[in-house]
Amino acid sequence: MMSSVPGADRKSKLLVYTIEECPVCGQKTKRAFTVGDYITKEASKCPKCSNTARVSLVYAESAKQSG
Amino acid sequence: MTSVMSISAAVLQVTSGDLTTYLYIAFFGLLFVVQFAFGTRLQSYFAINEISRGLNKLRVMKDKARKDAIDYLVNVGKAQADPTQRVDQFLDYVTIMPVDIDPSGLVGKIDHVVTTNNDRVRAEVGSLLNQNNPVTVSISENLLEVATSLNQIHKIVRHFYLLGKKTNSYFTLVQLQMLMPMIIQEADALLNATDSFRMGEPVGDGIGPVVVSRFMAGKEKRVIAKDTVMAITEYKGRKLYVLKADGPMAYVGQPGVAIQKIVSEMGVKPSAIVMIDAALKLEGEKTGEIAEGVGAAIGGIGVEKFQIEEAATKAKVPLYAILVKQSILEAITVMRKEIAEAADKVAEVLNRVIEEKTKEGDEVVVAGIGNTLGVAQ
């Protein structure tokens, strides 16, 4: 008889990224999420205009999706 | 001689054919009798087996959630003593809802009980930890709530399973068997949420606060209700009162109290209240899809919804809702790319709603509803 209880975890692995955005030139940088990151947190210098970037998004995508 | 042999062969053939027929009849007859006499018992046996497997999964899940909470309290919260006993006591705490046979004033009573419980949880967690970092305290609260929920789910399922077995109640067992896949799914979502909470990652439910935080960035913020902050800003000649729970802590705040204060105590006469929240999608709907509507876009036990509806009705302010669709798993685990990327579109919709429904010089309340873990302002 087939079980209707869902089987073991078959979800694909998720990778979490932090997006930093420069409030002046709009340059976006994507890097791996580190504990302590939060949206609006001051981030590193913008590689384009050297202004302080801010974390604008934190999201997860599947390892497959992110290639 | 030949004719005698052919006759005996024919007789034999007929006899063997009859025997097969009789065997068939006997087999199906027996099957019918077994099905008739023991069918329910057989079904109950299958149901018991399946529920038992599900119950084992639930037990593993609740044990893992409990262990995760204890580990977090010890490793990150630097709990002074071994918190295991206190955590176990915490898991069995109950919140007794007020009597509803006289519904007058019921929401106030529920609010009182729930607020008492929330205060108790925070005080309890605070006494366990050897630090008062609000993010760590709020994450600990959420981890303990997840562990409590899984503990409750396991207990309730176990209760009906044992009751069904004890009373040999076929219908109790079959109903539980049918519900098991949904129960396991919800429990699995809760367990997955612990990983996101421990890491301090924004969850799908935080999409409302993500959008609203963009309007609050760089503005002066003030605490307007417990765990809730507000900023005043401007958009195309309209004065916006923007509010969300205080991030990056794992709070949901009290948007109901905040909106009541803005409308009645601060004397603001908004032309619209716009609420942005995550909404559970139906199967087949896409994650990150945006839906617009009217009414108070807020989940929970109903207290906040009641407060917002009452404030809006008294002041005759229209309530507009902007919803971002997601599953229960996506709502309580780390925010998926599709949901995060909807933030820009939601901001566009919000701007359009403000432009269409209000005019220059108007005041508008914008509320980002949801758990604001990992989303500051």
Largest binding interface between chains: A-B, 23 and 33 residues
CATH homologous superfamily label of the largest domain in chain B: Peptidyl-tRNA hydrolase
Characterize the quaternary organization of these chains: heterodimer
Count of distinct structural domains of chain B: 2
CATH architecture of the largest domain in chain B: 3-Layer(aba) Sandwich
| Total number of distinct structural domains of chain A | 1
Overall mean confidence score, pLDDT of chain A:
83
Reported for the largest beta sheet of chain B, the result is:
7 strands, mixed
Count every helix of chain B, treating DSSP H or I runs of 4 or more residues as helices. Answer: 11
The major β-sheet of chain A equals: 4 strands, antiparallel
By DSSP, the count of extended strands of chain A is: 4
Side-by-side strand order of the widest sheet of chain B: 1-2-3-7-4-6-5
CATH C-level class of the largest domain in chain B: Alpha Beta
Radius of gyration of chain B: 30 Å
Shape of chain B: elongated
Strands of the largest sheet of chain A, in order across it?
A: 2-1-4-3
The amount of helix of chain A comes to under 10%
The gyration radius over C-alpha positions of chain A equals 17 Å
Could you explain the architecture of this structure?
The complex is a heterodimer of chains A (67) and B (377). With 67 residues, chain A is mainly beta. In chain A, 6% of the residues lie in helices and 42% in strands. Chain A is built from 1 helix and 4 strands, in the order ββββα. In chain A, a hairpin with a 6-residue loop joins strand 3 (42-45) and strand 4. The longest helix of chain A is centred in the C-terminal third of the chain and has 4 residues, at 63-66. With 377 residues, chain B is an alpha/beta fold. Helices cover 60% and strands 13% of the residues of chain B. Chain B has 11 helices and 7 strands. Chain B has helices at residues 2-75, 84-91, 106-128, 134-166, 170-199, 207-216, 255-265, 303-315, 328-332, 337-340, 342-357, and strands at 221-225, 228-235, 238-245, 272-280, 290-294, 319-326, 363-368. Chain B is elongated. Classes of the chains: A mainly beta (67), B alpha/beta (377). The A-B interface holds A 1, 3-6, 9, 14, 16, 33, 35-41, 54, 57-61, 65 and B 46, 50, 53-54, 57, 177-178, 180-181, 184-185, 188, 199-202, 210, 213, 217, 247-248, 334-337, 339-341, 343, 374-377.
